[in-house]
Design a protein that fits this description.
The chain has 8 helices and 51 strands. By secondary structure, it is mainly beta. The protein has a 22-stranded antiparallel β-barrel. Strands 1, 2, 5, 8 and 9 form a 5-stranded mixed β-sheet that branches. It holds the Pfam family CarbopepD_reg_2. Its main location: membrane. Belongs to the TonB-dependent receptor family. It is found in: Cell outer membrane.
């Protein structure tokens, strides 16, 4: 009986299998030149038979014989149905290419998205790529409530942002060691002191995703040691949409101010641009009066996109967005000191009260036009305009050596800064054959950076009221500055595959390319000093109405005189500005060879050669006659990247490279820049550093939304550059090659986990992520080297030091809960995000003074986003909930001395959006 049952079961099984066939195929991405599309859903309509495509976009299903419909879908793409008939034992191949479609992503942002914005898709690209890089897409940025690119990159491993700026540190290395590109093409700085543009002026509304390359690969400029940040702008491919956004925000510190006041003059949209006075014989300046503000800010924006099919294969895609946003800021409960001796005694200034009020604006416009002739040829044009402004009023009250020894001095420094960036890019992608591709790009970048009126006043509080301090001419002044930079960039590369296998794949690929950068900078600055004559330094003035003293009548009556750094009213060239010009030309060529040794091991060996020329001419207060300096450098930069696939979920990677670090124009121009508590001066003797880099990384991708990785890295830097206090009467800071060598060693870890997921129609899931890095940095400090190589002298407190800006420990963590209902048309997500950096050096110690150190800070943000229906959505944000004290100390041998403290307040925001 048992034998009979066994035979029946066997016959039934054989019969069942005999009634089935196999359908298989490859799903590709029509918008990306038919690249494989992983994780696409492939199902048999009306059944439970289905699967997801693998990394190569392939699938295979066992289906009963008969007539069926194959359904192929991917989020952000069109869903297609393919009827087919299959016979018993037959194998049928169905290959299809999916095009994009306009949908709303599950991250509740009502935008037209493509898969390149999704966290899971970027993880797939990271897994497949030979290069070692990290990316953060629009979906993750939205979930974490990130509004600008500077904050975006700090959510990735090993990166922090300098307090109060948009400057970032990658693995402890600051501005000079990093680079910034947009769509793979370089973009210039909007700050004369910086190499990189402020990343916080880029709103995430224009971003498809941001990539951070920490391992050099030879395709980009060799001026690289920390990392390259590449901003990929939105490239719309959907059917059509129009979206409106409006929001409001407030800072709790600003709301708590009894009288929030800023200088009168600049308009609320940040486009004001006061002109320099044309003469110093008359008082031709804007008002010094302050006006009250209601510190409630907001934002609004509009964006839209549409695609048009042209002919049988062509497609025209257009995306445009425009937005305006503003914010009020306030630093409260603060104090500040100038220089402090090693024994803790004060050198020049001690302000027991420090406060700062500010107003920032950002206006952005982006147009992207892409035309795909067919699957082999595509060109795109990007035009980006950003106008940002910052208006700040800082007030310092306390001790000023020799000017307010009783601790009754007041310094008010009001600054208005306006920067305009205009970038135009034209890019092309062409598939010549199954072996070769040709990519090219050209761009014109224009930057105008204006400080059209910085106002600086020094006062003393007496029993009768405030009087003007005017011991030296610059104690009261107005400052005007303009930076203009024009840069043309070009790139071209050709890929050629070789070593074709019997399966039709290729074992290797040559990539030959060229990059060119042609940069010109013109910088001018004029400072108008107001020297008050003796009898009138006792005149009582109102700090809220200094126009009552500084006016045409009092100038005519001889109360004060106006002069510049190069003369006075009787000299014809009194209005000649301080200025410098810079020219930098870089030609770079490279050849990369990629080779797949077997199914597991792939390597890319590259060699890049660059010819660099940098010229700087100046005429400044330190050198009224003027001078110039030039250096040329030809360098060869080998680089190697290896990837070993341990299995289908794990990779082991290695990166080796040589790079360099260039000094910047202003660092080499003999130009002086004054702040309230520090003065910086250029060093014409500064020269480049050379860097040697090593990375080893292990990564595992358990599921499509999960990641576990560990990285060890090291850097050896020859002739590192630092900002250091030099021996001078005013303790100026300059830029020096401070020693022969420096080292960076560290480890990074990243973990992303899908904690739980349930439901289909009304799904919910909980996800969490954490990334951390630990770094050790050290460098030699050699005073005799500085004395020998430069015109400056320095007395280092220590013979070794960590790198400035390097935090030994960095940490980011977040947890997100997501739920949807109403057939996935409605949803809500909540995210709690935490960031932390440990103590880091701000400035190296000299003259027996300890290092200046920014103390550790942890920040906590809470973000809620919801889609009420398919058209309407809203968001709530509470940032900097912990409101920690920001503190800078000088670490002397006999104890720390606090140099600067304040709190920034909590930022609260609300936004609503509607999509047609």
């Amino acid at each position: 009986m048992k034998l009979k049952l066994l035979l029946i079961t066997l016959l039934f099984t054989v019969f069942a299998f005999a009634q089935k066939g196999t359908v298989k195929g490859t799903i590709t991405d029509k918008e990306m030149n038919n690249e494989p599309l992983p994780f696409a859903s492939v199902t048999i309509k009306g059944t439970t038979i289905g699967a997801n495509t693998d990394e190569k976009g392939t699938f295979s299903l066992s289906v009963p014989e008969g007539n069926h419909t194959l359904m192929i879908a991917f989020l952000g793409y069109e869903t297609i149905e393919v009827p087919f008939k299959i016979a018993s034992g037959e194998t049928k191949t169905i290959d299809k290419a999916l095009g994009t479609a306009g949908v709303q992503l599950e991250d509740v942002v009502l935008k037209i998205e493509t898969n390149r914005q999704k966290e899971s898709a970027l993880l797939v690209e990271q897994k497949k790529a030979i290069e070692i890089k990290q990316s953060i897409g629009a979906q993750e940025l939205s979930r974490k409530g990130v509004s600008d690119v500077a904050t975006a990159v700090t959510k990735t491993t090993g990166i922090t942002k300098q307090e109060g700026t948009g400057n970032i540190y990658v693995r402890g290395l600051g501005d000079r060691y990093n680079s910034t590109t947009m769509n793979g093409l370089p973009i210039p700085s909007n700050d004369p002191e910086k190499k990189n543009i402020r990343l916080d002026i880029f709103p995430t509304d224009i971003v498809e995703y941001v990539s951070i390359d920490k391992v050099y690969n030879g395709k980009t400029s060799g001026d690289f040691a920390g990392g390259n940040v590449d901003i990929t702008s939105k490239d719309y491919k959907g059917k059509g949409f129009l979206r409106l956004d409006i929001g409001a925000n407030a800072n709790t510190n600003a709301l708590a101010e009894d009288n929030f006041r800023l200088p009168k003059g600049p308009n609320s949209f940040g486009f004001s641009n006061p002109a320099n006075p044309k003469t110093i014989s008359s008082y031709d300046f804007n008002t010094l009066q302050l006006e009250g503000k209601t510190p409630m800010a907001g934002s609004f924006g509009i964006s839209g996109g549409k695609s048009f099919d042209i002919g049988t294969e062509g497609k025209l895609s257009i995306f445009a967005t425009g937005s305006f946003g503003n914010e009020y800021t306030s630093k409260r409960n603060g104090s500040a000191k100038g220089s402090v001796n090693g024994d803790g005694s004060l050198v020049n200034r001690n302000f027991n009260s420090f406060s700062s009020m500010g107003y920032n604006t950002n206006t952005t416009g982006l147009v992207n036009v892409g035309y795909k002739f067919n699957n082999n040829h595509k060109v795109s044009f990007n035009s980006l305009f950003i106008n940002s402004s910052s208006q700040v009023k800082d007030e310092y009250y306390g001790y000023i050596a020799d000017l307010a020894d009783a601790g009754n001095g007041l310094i008010r420094r009001s600054e208005y800064v306006k920067n305009t960036l205009f970038v135009n890019q034209l890019l092309g992608e062409h598939t010549i054959s199954n072996r070769s591709k040709f990519n090219w790009g050209v761009a014109q970048n224009n930057i105008t950076g204006d400080t059209p009126d910085r106002m600086y006043n020094t006062l003393r509080n007496t029993d009768n009221g405030y009087t003007i301090i005017s011991q030296s001419k610059p104690d009261n002044h107005r400052y005007f500055q303009r930076l203009k930079e024009y840069e043309t960039v070009a790139t071209a590369s050709v890929d050629y595959k070789f070593g074709k296998t019997s399966e039709g794949d290729f074992k290797g690929k040559f990539t030959a390319g060229y990059n060119g950068r042609f940069k010109n900078r013109d910088f001018k600055a004029t400072q108008f000093n107001f020297k008050t004559f003796g009898p009138y330094t006792t005149t009582i003035v109102d700090p809220q109405n200094l126009d009552s003293f500084y006016n045409q009548q009092n100038l005519n009556n001889g109360y004060f005189e106006i002069s510049t750094f190069v003369g006075n009213a009787e000299i014809s060239n009194a209005l000649d500005p301080q200025k410098y010009t810079g020219e930098q030309i870089i030609h770079g060529g490279y050849l990369n060879t990629e080779y797949k040794f077997n199914s597991k091991l792939t390597a890319v060996l590259g060699l890049r050669a660059e010819n660099i020329s940098q010229k700087v001419d100046w005429k400044t207060q330190l050198d009224p006659v003027g001078d110039k300096d030039e250096f040329k450098k030809t360098t060869f930069l080998p680089n190697l990247i290896m990837k070993y696939e341990l299995n289908d979920k794990q990779n082991l990677r290695l990166g080796l490279s040589k790079t360099y670090t260039l000094p910047q124009f202003k660092e080499r121009a003999l130009f002086i820049y004054e702040d309230v508590t520090e003065v910086k001066v250029g060093n014409p003797d500064l020269y480049p550093s050379d860097n040697y880099n090593l990375d080893i990384k292990w990564e595992m991708f358990p599921k499509s939304e999960e990641l576990l990785s560990f990285t060890a890295f090291g850097k050896y830097i020859l002739n590192p550059i630092n900002e250091v206090t030099i021996a001078s009467s005013t303790n100026d800071i300059s830029f020096l090659n401070t020693g022969d060598r420096g080292y960076v060693a560290g480890a990074e870890a990243e973990f992303r986990k899908l904690i739980f997921e349930s439901g289909e129609a009304n799904s919910k899931k909980l996800t969490a992520g954490v990334n951390a890095s630990y770094m050790y940095t050290t460098q030699d400090l050699n005073a005799s080297k500085v004395d020998k190589e430069t015109r400056y002298n320095v007395d280092f407190t220590k013979s070794k030091s960590a790198f400035t800006g390097a935090s030994p420990l960095l940490l980011n963590a977040d947890v997100t809960f997501f739920k949807e209902w109403n057939n996935k048309e409605s949803n809500i997500s909540t995210t709690l995000a935490y960031s932390y950096f440990s103590d880091r050096i701000y400035a190296l110690g000299t003259n027996m003074r300890g290092d200046q150190v920014d103390k550790a800070v942890g920040t906590l943000d809470f973000i809620v986003k919801s889609k009420i229906n398919k058209n309407l959505g809203f968001g709530l944000m509470a940032k900097n909930i912990l409101n920690p004290k920001i503190e800078r100390v000088q670490e002397n041998n006999n104890g720390d001395v606090t140099l600067l403290t304040y709190t920034k307040g909590m930022n609260l925001g609300f936004n609503i959006n509607y999509q047609f």
